[in-house]
DNA sequence: AATACTTGACAGTGAGACTATGATGATATA
DNA sequence: TATATCATCATAGTCTCACTGTCAAGTATT
């Protein structure tokens, strides 16, 4: 293969450059000329690999999704606890965005670009997560974990919407608005949602006397007890959690 | 004003046509030629009113926002109850989208179009809602309505994110995915969130028996009461999209 | 009717997506 | 070493579309 001395393969170099430029400017404003220059290849080479500018746009999240998202989904079937499984789904979702800072911008660009978006791997991945979540919620309702009157669609939108909202804000305002990462918020977040939709159950075992006027004390008890810190604590975090950041390109 | 027999003023006709075409296609795919034809006006006239295609894109949500959003915000200061005020903010937010079906698409187009978005009335309206919400949440935390350890930013993202998520899905799948409107979901939604973040109080003086092994039960008991009404709408599977595929362009 | 203003038709410019083609030089194979 | 192959590049050219400029014709106001 004639590489003219360049090490990394051209297709990747083009996608890297395009990712940066698309995210920084916008689809209209980015030109193939600029992308090819940034990638150190000729314009014709871009067209060799990607038939159209739009193909290029669609290829990038496709690759990221296939590279980083798929494997993190593999553990899901082994998590029997509904809440733990939901946590794992959201975690992989968050990691997908977190590890690829420009990803959300690109996905939005695609979304707005045209109807083709529905056929992409990125959309498929999101769709599948959404579907899995819905199943979990229904399962939780069916087995009594969640209230029987809970609206599964609504709860799913709460879960995914909040995360997307956090990332969109992140994207719009430049990252470090706060010291807490979105990952840090996952458990408090889930606690609130689960808190709001858990079915009331009977209690067995120890009984204690509480004076319910003392709200503070109650709050302490609630948060220090094992239960309310994320029920999924023992669930092993999805594989690529170490934040390795394989290439700084993204 | 020379109107050549047309009644409605040209500027509005152009914006109407543009709103439809931008939302249906996308920014790139919509051409000024088509918009002007749809509006029954010459191409030059479009440029008379709107200097550039992008100006046209930005002018539309600007108008809608100013027309319909501002007044709905006027009542807010008079609602003293924190939760009631939060509900009102979200309600006006939902109405903004609901009354203008193409609005969300246009706002997203703007968002992705470029950085100018931050100076638009649409963005300003959203920003102000977001800000008001944050204030409400903080006030609720301060006055003991909400748990003291609640994360105000997170809660805001839950509230706004869920609504935006519902609308984006709505936009992507063609409207009537379900019989319930997004407005119908507002109260069940708020119930879950408030449920999850309300400070545990009331039940003054009552002593009850609790099992600390099942912390869930503790939470339930504390939150139990009036708010769990939400009629159990049985979940029906989403009638999956009609796959109409209006244009085979791609 | 006279003047001021608005609109339309049309021609033209420039940017940028995309194509076609032939030259170049690295690599594989004989 | 010689030859074939193939990725890449450079260049030139086509086409679509945003956008401009001009002028004639219509309408409003006086």
What does this structure look like?
Two copies of one chain form a homodimer. Chain A is mostly helical and 250 residues long. The first copy, chain A, folds into two domains: 8-51, Arc Repressor Mutant, subunit A, CATH 1.10.10; 57-199 and 217-235, Tetracycline Repressor, domain 2, CATH 1.10.357.10. Chain A is built from ten helices and one strand. Chain A has helices spanning 10-24, 32-39, 43-49, 53-69, 82-99, 103-113, 121-142, 152-173, 182-197, 215-224; one strand at residues 208-211. In chain A, helix 5 packs parallel to helix 8 (152-173) and helix 7 (121-142) packs across helix 8. The longest helix of chain A has 22 residues, at 121-142. The radius of gyration of chain A is 22 Å and the shape is elongated. At the A-B interface, helix 6, helix 8, helix 9, strand 1 and helix 10 of A face helix 6, helix 8, helix 9, strand 1 and helix 10 of B.
Describe, in short, the structure shown.
By secondary structure, the first copy, chain A, is mainly α. Chain A has helices at residues 10-24, 32-39, 43-49, 53-69, 82-99, 103-113, 121-142, 152-173, 182-197, 215-224; one strand at 208-211. The first copy, chain A, is elongated and about 65 Å long.
